[in-house]
Amino acid sequence: MPNLTVRNIPRKEYAALRKDAERSGRSLNSELLAMIHERSETRRRRRAAIRQIDRLREQIARQFPDQPDSVVLIREDRESH
Amino acid sequence: MTFILDASVVGKYLVSEADSDKARALILDWERGKTDVKAPEILVAEVASLLRKRVLRRLIPPLWAMELFQRFEDLRVPLERIEGLAGAALALSLKYHHSVYDGLYAAMAFRTGAELITADEKLCTALQGSGVLVRLLSDWN
Question: Distance from A80 to chain B by nearest Cα, in Å?
Answer without folding.
Answer: 9
